[in-house]
From TrEMBL:
Coiled coil: none annotated. InterPro entries: BUG, Bug_dom1. Keywords: Signal. Belongs to the UPF0065 (bug) family. It comes from the Bacteria. Residues 1-24 form the signal peptide. This is ABC transporter substrate-binding protein.
């Protein structure tokens, strides 16, 4: 029995020593943040300044690598397989959590294969229309559809937050849109501006420049409150209570990453998200800083997976 307790105590002391070493030494080499989408997109645009500022706080270079695929599966799977040492991280959008609802055989599990570090920020979506579209608010839009008029809604993707927000609005209003899928926002904007399609739900970062240029109308936003950059624009929830959709951005590490490393990364990420560089970036597009703890990020992730998974199932959505 004495030998057994000695082994247990030795193992516990070894674990404490390893944890202390992780706290003291991490990081001692460059880090890599994988973005599972193409360069130039919304997630990539956020990650570039974030990585640069994170490197300053940690005292190491932080390299951004794009591993694009249609729904972010390729990059997420690569990080899930990486060594759980804190040197390979993932920065992704809400698609990280919602994609497995569409693809049950997705090559990663957002809960089992990852340890959340923080939800960096969250952005309400915007509802934009072409300049000649008759509806100037959500109430008029709903009335048009219920009166039998066809409303064409552009979808820049099939499994992302934009498509899910479109479905949530339709479900809450009891209407059906004519959905027109595109391979990306660029082609969708071309047809939306020309009037080939009527409406699109999109990220503010890519839509608001067209609104400011006078090419599109902004009729609503999908956050819990009005956007600071568009205070005169009502939320969808003001007409359809309960409709909220935000595209959030998560920083995560492979499952099994030591707790002291996660804590160090969390502290640094929260400092960066609340710093002046990222604050200016977020304020420009009406994005809100979240910067929560790993535990809070995990709870948020679970809640979002359940909420949107229910929409996918109830609406029988297919990729």
């Amino acid at each position: 029995m004495r030998r057994y307790y000695f082994r247990v105590a030795a193992a516990a002391l070894a674990g404490l020593a390893m944890s202390a070493a992780a706290r003291a030494d991490f990081p001692d080499k460059p880090l890599r943040i994988v973005v599972p989408f193409a360069a130039g997109g919304g997630v990539d645009a956020l990650t570039r300044p974030f990585a640069q500022e994170l490197g300053k706080v940690l005292g190491q270079t932080v390299v951004v690598e794009n591993k694009p695929s249609a729904t972010g599966q390729t990059g997420a799977a690569e990080v899930a397989r990486a060594a759980p040492d804190g040197y390979t991280l993932l920065l992704s959008s809400a698609a990280f959590g919602t994609t497995p609802a569409f693809y049950p055989q997705a090559p990663y599990d957002p809960i089992k294969d990852f340890t959340p570090i923080t939800i960096v920020a969250a952005a309400p979506q915007v509802v934009v229309t072409n300049k000649n579209f008759k509806a100037r608010n959500i109430d008029e839009l709903v009335r048009m559809v219920k009166a039998g008029e066809q409303v064409n809604v552009a979808l820049s993707g099939i499994t992302g937050m934009q498509a899910l927000a479109t479905e949530m609005i339709a479900a809450q209003a009891g209407i059906t849109f004519t959905k027109v899928p595109y391979k990306g926002a660029g082609a969708a904007f071309k047809d939306l501006i020309s009037g080939e399609v009527d409406v699109m739900i999109d990220n503010p970062a890519s839509s608001l420049p067209h609104v400011r240029a006078g090419n599109l109308n902004l009729i609503a936003t999908t956050g819990p409150r009005r956007m600071s950059t568009a205070p005169d624009t009502p939320t969808v929830a003001e007409t359809l209570p309960g409709v909220q959709a935000r595209n959030w951005f998560i920083l995560a590490a492979p499952a099994g990453t030591p707790a002291p490393v996660i804590d160090a990364l969390s502290r640094a990420a929260i400092q960066v998200a609340n710093g002046p560089v990222m604050q200016r970036f977020f304020e420009r597009d009406g994005t809100e800083v979240v910067a929560n703890s790993p535990q809070q990020a995990g709870q948020y992730l679970s809640e979002e997976i359940a909420r949107w998974g229910k929409i996918v199932k109830e609406r029988n959505l297919q990729p």
